Amino acid sequence: MASAALRPLRLCWALGPLCLCCALRPAAAATNILLLLMDDMGWGDLGAFGEPSKETPNLDQMAAEGMLFLDFYTASPLCSPSYTPQDIVGGIPDSELLLPELLKKAGYTNKIIGKWHLGHRPQFHPLKHGFHEWFGSPNCHFGPYDNRERPNIPVYRDWEMVGRYYEDFKIDLKTGEANLTQLYLQEALDFISKQQASQKPFFLYWAIDATHAPVYASKQFLGTSQRGLYGDAVREIDDSVGKILKHLQQLGISENTFVFFTSDNGAALISAPKQGGSNGPFLCGKQTTFEGGMREPAIAWWPGHIPAGGVSHQLGSVMDLFSTSLSLAGLQPPSDRQIDGIDLLPVMLQGKLIDRPIFYYRGNELMAVRAGLYKAHFWTWSNSWEEQSKGIDFCPGQSVAGVTTHTQEEHTCLPLLFHLGRDPGEKYPISFASEEYQRAVERVSALVQQHKATLVPGQPQLNVCDQAVMDNSTVTTPNRQIAAFGDQK
Ligand SMILES: *[C@@H]1O[C@H](CO)[C@@H](O)[C@H](O)[C@H]1NC(C)=O
Ligand SMILES: *[C@@H]1O[C@H](CO)[C@@H](O)[C@H](O)[C@H]1NC(C)=O
């Protein structure tokens, strides 16, 4: 609240004797922040983004009342930013400053509902990283495992393990029925009501996973979509988001609550069409650095502040939600480190466009860069031949010669260049000999140099290929995962 607290002082300076009344006026209530993060939902899954069966009336309405971001990206084509099986012992290091840690200092109450995915050792618990409350799981609802070597994934309420997926929180893999989205919805509505009653600002991170395979929906939504079970899951999420927004309106706090909807990576085409979504016109899906792997559906909603019906071509990133949320809370980003995100409030409130690149990483490798409408690939790779032969395909039905390669092809000396305006599907590389190519690649090279100059590599935490972060005791201590986070229960 630094800037809000300073504002009355500046007024005092200007108004002199009138000072008392403005000093007595309470500062405007801090803006609540609600981040709705979907799991494996694709750019093409919402009606507002052109999904042909138009089954997301509430999200489409949210977009009509707020701002649609068409060029919004995730930081990695995988969740977490990596898949964390139970035997991983790494997690979010204490040295990382998380958004809730900073918001806490500004008086926010922070809750995470759903998937944490940043480590399941005691030191990684979300309540040790700035959250006050949690209902959800440290992992995806994979399973059922149902054995002692690999127990089912636990579900937590704050510090307490309250049960496990499949055993206590049922997911019927035959019918696709599960009530989890309803539980996560109710949890959100209750938290919002409680915060409104206590007049304290809140940060709610709603990271639900119904659209991650195995996808699920509750009975009232099963069989209601033209798209099958995946569509049923989307429809239930759409309905839930509608109920959350209506709840904010009914409590009279919608103008005081910033809501942002997006997804963690592109649709998992490997699971499509029955268990995976759509990336619209884009190439490939989750796991890849083609547009389908990293471009996300994104909607900002803040009635009375963000003008209705906005459509922005701002190149945005999930990392911007950090800086934007701090800005909403009147806080500055930490100055002791390089921050990759930017504050999107000038984009949303004044329609500004901020020139900035997007970097596409796969693992540690900088695969591609987007600058304006140009995207340069330094490496191309879809999947390995070995995976392909087993039917593990991240680009089903989408082979583009020389682009969706099955070996890791290096193009660092002569990047493959696409114009995403004329060619959103990355099908027509721009001729190396053209002047357009020369100009664009020069610009991209300068951006990469700048980026690399300030890059500080992190310690690997969640890399399954790195023995240092894997639990070697799989066979010898079969009960190691009876509860995550140690022995609380
Ligand atoms: C979902 O909740 C309903 C109503 O309580 C119950 O009848 C049903 O068995 C639950 N389904 C699952 C899969 O847990
Ligand atoms: C697992 O074993 C590898 C190789 O012996 C070792 O380098 C690593 O530190 C071990 N990991 C843990 C978490 O103990």
From TrEMBL:
Residues bearing PTM 3-oxoalanine (Cys): 79
GO molecular function, one term: arylsulfatase activity
Residues glycosylated per entry: 179
Domain Sulfatase N-terminal: 32-330
EC numbers, comma separated: 3.1.6.4
Record bears the keyword Metal-binding: yes
Extent of the signal sequence: 1-29
Keywords on record: Calcium, Glycoprotein, Metal-binding, Signal
Active site: 79 (nucleophile), 117
Record field: catalytic activity: Hydrolysis of the 6-sulfate groups of the N-acetyl-D-galactosamine 6-sulfate units of chondroitin sulfate and of the D-galactose 6-sulfate units of keratan sulfate
Cofactor: how and how many bound: Binds 1 Ca(2+) ion per subunit.
Pfam families linked: Sulfatase, Sulfatase_C
Binding-site list for Ca(2+): 39-40, 79, 264-265
Lineage: superkingdom: Eukaryota
Required cofactor(s): Ca(2+)
Top-rank EC class of the record's enzyme: hydrolase
Record PANTHER family: ARYLSULFATASE FAMILY MEMBER, N-ACETYLGALACTOSAMINE-6-SULFATASE
Family note: Belongs to the sulfatase family.
Designated name of the protein: N-acetylgalactosamine-6-sulfatase
Organism: Hirundo rustica rustica
Organism placement in taxonomy: Eukaryota, Metazoa, Chordata, Craniata, Vertebrata
